Amino acid sequence: MRERQVFFVSDRTAITAEGLGNSLLTQFGEVAFNRITRRFIDTPEKAHTVADEIRRAGDQSGSRPIVFSTLIDADMRSIVAKSGAVCFDFVDTFIGRLEEELGQQSSHSIGKTHGLTDSSTYNLRMEAVNFALATDDGLTSRMYDQADLIVVGVSRSGKTPTCLYLALTFGIRAANYPLTPDDLGVMRLPMELGAHHHKIYGLTIDPGRLRAIRTERRPNSDYSSLQQCQYEVRQAEALFRHNGIPSVATTTMSVEEIATTIVHELGLQWHLP
Amino acid sequence: MRERQVFFVSDRTAITAEGLGNSLLTQFGEVAFNRITRRFIDTPEKAHTVADEIRRAGDQSGSRPIVFSTLIDADMRSIVAKSGAVCFDFVDTFIGRLEEELGQQSSHSIGKTHGLTDSSTYNLRMEAVNFALATDDGLTSRMYDQADLIVVGVSRSGKTPTCLYLALTFGIRAANYPLTPDDLGVMRLPMELGAHHHKIYGLTIDPGRLRAIRTERRPNSDYSSLQQCQYEVRQAEALFRHNGIPSVATTTMSVEEIATTIVHELGLQWHLP
Asked: What's the ipTM?
């Protein structure tokens, strides 16, 4: 497999550069990309240091490195551009057309890249994280009145990370309730959930994958046996169907995909700008 | 303030379209952007529905909507392009130059946008989330041997969300230890932390901001008084200085910024591809 050096360069967190850069790279399956991120490159000196590093990487590998950047400052951009790399600047490419369309100069200011720093937004996310922690794994069901969402599923189907991601990213208050073998013996929603039918979303998973995840936690147990995993998943799926609860199979999905699927399917409104 | 309608359109989660789109919009302070996200637009029918919605928004507001999209499929892109909006396509804009540089056609496949779905990556992130939960708020300090990082700070300085973000995003095992008034009376690191000096990172915060956060939680208490907040922050900062512990003031930072600052300053290697 061919190898190629990739740099993500940003004057702030590099989250945007990594996000779009990685999306683009996944479209090219036959190359092994060696990724390096250089964050907080916010002075010409730092830009020179990164440019030198990129230049060396190009010399050593014999092919031009690929740079994905979100450098706002034109001087720093031109320093990095002289490193001999193929440069994709995600801000500079679009900002001119946006200025034209909006009839306004951009502020060209570093440090506003996410706009998530104002305190009301911070508070909403923190409250949502606290809510997710307080209601994790079926705890404190009396708080379900305040929930935007209650995620249900068998143990290890991905409930906790999904709820934490929704809280951190969208400020959504997501509780999660584990379906235990006791719940699964009957085709009725657990009592705690009864009054909140419209907020419930189900996670399901391939039994073989569930077995692998549970085996990491408790090898050679009933809990992680294929038979038990098959039974629990089958019963949970029947429970969802029987009660008209929307659900998604998490088997091949990332946490981001599970979370945005729920937001999409339930039409959740979230609290962040 | 002028208003402008903005649409984020994606055939998958829209995380990339929102991320870069919002970064660009923050450069324009004098416009109030009204944002709508349309995810999972993966058929021509859905693309037509979104295009109609965009067209109506333009008719009603009297100015062209702005569309940030990551639609991979050329047909769907052209359907949306005919809505009369100003379209910025974050994939199409770069993919041609990348194909040329790599000497390879892109797969043009929907659903690979993050590449975070393989099970080893999933496992690493889940283990890191479980680790963060098990070691939250000073719990289970015997697990500090397995930590990549231990975040310390006074109550409500942002430790828990930072650790959860690091776990979910990077698969970093981050524990957090709260500095209590007992710890702060002496200028010595708490015993549990002694052997892990190189893994410790401090969070600090403006006392006025801390007071506001604590007041939401426990109004009119000693805990939330300005005097107590000032005392705790001053002592925590002195403790960091005295022990050579790097730290950052979280007052005006988003969780993303706090987390990537720590990764950057400690030079943490993380476990995800």
From this structure: 0.85
Q: Would you say B105 and B44 are in contact if contact means Cβ atoms under 8 Å apart?
A: no
| B112 neighbourhood in chain A, CB within 8 Å | 26-27
CATH code given to domain B2-102: 3.40.50
Chain A residues touching B260 at Cβ < 8 A: 12-15, 39
Q: Regarding the domain delimited by A119-266, which CATH topology (the fold level of the hierarchy) does it fall under?
A: Rossmann fold (3.40.50)
Nearest neighbour of B27 by CB, restricted to A107, A117, A257: A107
Q: Do B161 and A88 touch (CB under 8 A)?
A: no
- CA angle, residues B145, B256, B110, in degrees to nearest 5: 105
Give the up-direction half-sphere exposure of residue B247: CA atoms within 13 A in the CB hemisphere. 24
Residue (of A20, A14, A15) closest to A46 by Cα position: A14
Every domain of chain B with CATH number 3.40.50.300 lies at 119-266
The per-residue pLDDT string of chain A (273 residues; one tens digit each, 9 = 90 and over) reads 789 999 999 998 998 899 899 989 988 888 899 999 999 999 999 999 999 999 999 999 989 999 999 998 889 999 999 999 999 999 889 998 999 999 888 876 655 444 445 667 778 888 899 999 999 988 888 899 999 999 999 999 999 999 999 999 889 999 999 999 888 988 788 888 888 999 999 999 999 999 998 998 899 999 999 999 999 999 999 999 999 999 999 988 888 899 999 999 998 876 555
Judging contacts by C-beta atoms under 8 Å, the chain B residues touching residue A168 are 161, 164-165, 168, 255
Contact A23 B107 (CB under 8 A): no
Residues making up chain B, counted from first to last: 273
How far A231 CA lies from chain B's nearest CA (Å)? Answer: 22
A157 → chain B, closest CA residue: B126
Tell whether pTM > 0.90: no
| Out of B31, B97, B136, closest to residue A102 by CB | B31
Burial class for A272, CB neighbours closer than 10 Å (0-12, 13-18, 19+): middle
Distance from CA of A272 to the nearest CA of B (A): 11
Q: What are the start-end ranges of the E strands in chain A?
A: 2-9, 31-38, 66-69, 86-89, 149-154, 174-179, 200-204, 247-249
